[in-house]
Amino acid sequence: MEKYTYLLLNILTIALPFFWSFEKKIFFVRYWRGLFLGIAVMILVFVPWDVWFTSMQVWGFNERYITGIKIANLPIEEWLFFITVPYACTFLYETLNYYLPKSPLAGIQDKITAILIFVSFVLSIVFVDRIYTFTTFSLLSLFLIWHLLINRSNFLGQFYLLFVFVQIPFFFVNGALTGMFTDEPIVWYNNAENMGIRLITIPVDDVGYNMLMLLIVITVLEMFKVRILTGALKVT
């Protein structure tokens, strides 16, 4: 049964959010098109990145905990990760929007974005010789600059609040992947290519990686919503 560990983790991650998606108040299914479009856009970035880093042994997968089915040298479970985690987190984002429609961080979102850009840029420079750190925080800083200066996104305060909330489930999911609850990690990391700092078993770099992943998905979803509001799309 060990070989189904990563698969089971994916199922547990998405199970409750999926079934609650049909709940009448939030009715998350109305945003499925925008969500899966966002996931598709994110996958276009993250899967080639994943394939590249796996081939370079920046990280890898423990055969003990995967089924062995692979596409482009990535376990099928890793492909599912890029669906289940964004799905669950975006569901939480819409739940937050429903119960707290105005983010308490809305008034300072630009300041938070500027700080994140600065921190990400500094980390990418300091760790320019660590490919995971450099790539993650370079891309994150560039995407945040686009949001701050070009897109002028008004949902970032809510996104940052969500990101604080999801650190608890992230901690358990990433912890499970990095060996917090198993004899060996499901996903291993080469510490020579990251900051070398761990939150118990989780590389700190994963915080930036996860932020970028979710921000891409939610950005596309928010663009989808704008098209609905302007009448460009009809959702029933």
TrEMBL record:
Q: How does it sit in the membrane?
A: Multi-pass membrane protein
- Say where the protein is mainly found: membrane
Give me the segments passing through the membrane: 6-22, 34-59, 79-100, 112-128, 134-150, 159-181, 207-224
Question: What is the official name of this protein in its record?
Answer: Lycopene cyclase domain-containing protein
* Single GO biological process annotation from the record: carotenoid biosynthetic process
The listed locations are: Membrane
Keyword Transmembrane set for record: yes
Q: Which InterPro entries match?
A: Lycopene_cyclase_dom (IPR017825)
Q: Which UniProt keywords apply?
A: Carotenoid biosynthesis, Isomerase, Membrane, Transmembrane, Transmembrane helix
Q: Where is the Lycopene cyclase domain?
A: 4-96, 129-224
Q: In which pathway does it act?
A: Carotenoid biosynthesis
What one GO molecular function would you report for this record? lycopene beta cyclase activity
Q: Which domain of life is it from?
A: Bacteria
One of the record's GO cellular component terms: membrane
Record flagged with keyword Transmembrane helix: yes
